[in-house]
Amino acid sequence: MTPKDPTSRLNHRVIGICIAAALGGFLFGFDTSVINGAVDALSEQFALGPALTGFAVSSALIGCALGAWFAGPVANRLGRVPVMLIAAVLFLVSALGSGLAFGVWDLIAWRVVGGLGVGAASVIAPAYIAEVSPAAVRGRLGSLQQLAIVTGIFVALLSDALFVNLAGSASEPYWWGLEAWRWMFMAEAVPALAYGLFAFRLPESPRFLVARGDLDRAAQVLYDFTGVDQVNLKIQEIKDTLDSEQRESLRDLRGTLMGLKPIVWIGIALSVFQQFVGINVIFYYSTTLWRSVGFGESDALTITVITSVTNIVVTIIAILLVDKVGRRPMLLVGSLGMALSLALMAVAFSFATMTTAADGSTSAELGGAWATVALVAANAFVVFFGATWGPLVWVLLGEMFPNRIRAGALAVAAAAQWAANFAVSTTFPLLADVGLTLAYGLYAVMAGLSFLFVWWFVPETKGRELEDMTDTVSVRRSRRRTPSDR
Question: What domains are there in the chain, each with its CATH number?
């Protein structure tokens, strides 16, 4: 390919705007994981029990569910880019409010505000990226969302570890007499400002522009950014998928299967399974978990940072493979790997020694080889999740729905994901009090069920144009069935 080939230039431009859009994913990862290093300090400073600790950690997820639910309709009315700008403002307000919180309840309120931004970003970024990406590379570009999420997790955990090392502890004062955990939250203000500035420069989605009748701007975006040669033909294809409905709303998701279209239920189930395997237990509570098996605060944070680096590496591997291997095979492999590694963690913690603290809470202590087994199994779980279910669920949610219901269906699926995340994060401290074997055993069962669900219900979308997606689904009854059979 010569430098004069316009396709080369256009591909670089679409990659650029997809990266900018995926910054919402970075803030998504940062906002939801930054509390990891602050959990113990918050519990100590505000004298929280296990139940309130779990709620403080997972409170942002209430906002996430609400933000995801409303982001679709708002995006259909105002556009994809304005929703990104709103999310950036919410991130900024939450960062400052959380860092300056007076007590646990106003901290929870500020975390909910940040959750609204996370929920909105979780819907808009994959929808926007799918709508501006050529079909041949849409999987890779869609995976940028997950790469941004895991990078945000890494940076949040790295900044947590940095503040702990500089201050001596998350609960110790640092700059201006404010405790280190407060600076962990306020550090998010920097990427929030960057996200807002980048969003100002993004072009609107061509499919949104076509839906609003702005064909000239849609044609310009398609020509300048997506590398489409026959712009008028592509616009007509988009119009054909939109003409059946003048305005998309959540009512369009109604169907014959328990009130919703089958494809919407598949999106919801993918979202729920992604969370019910317990991945966010690793990223929300890992510092506390590793401290419970004998590591100091600084070492526990270091292990958590290493785990997040592993997550980044395997996400890059997923980006390289998704458009070659396909979505379904990778999800199936991931389900099996997660089930085995979670089961191994459950076995390891069955040999833990339980101790009871003065406040009545219990913790597990692992010694010898079982501590190593638990550490290896936890990282193996992250590898299998990060290379498959982490990025590919977002890819599928961005591309599996027909044009006329994409934003609304993605909003419902993302809201379900945040509700599932809230349920898992809130119940983990209580389950851990009963026994970590129970907690990780339940997550292992969910990973096994996710394999059966993908095998029977999830369609392959590799290489298909968004205009070819339909809302009809049939059960896969044998290995010989192919996408053409559906």
Answer: 6-485 (1.20.1250.20)
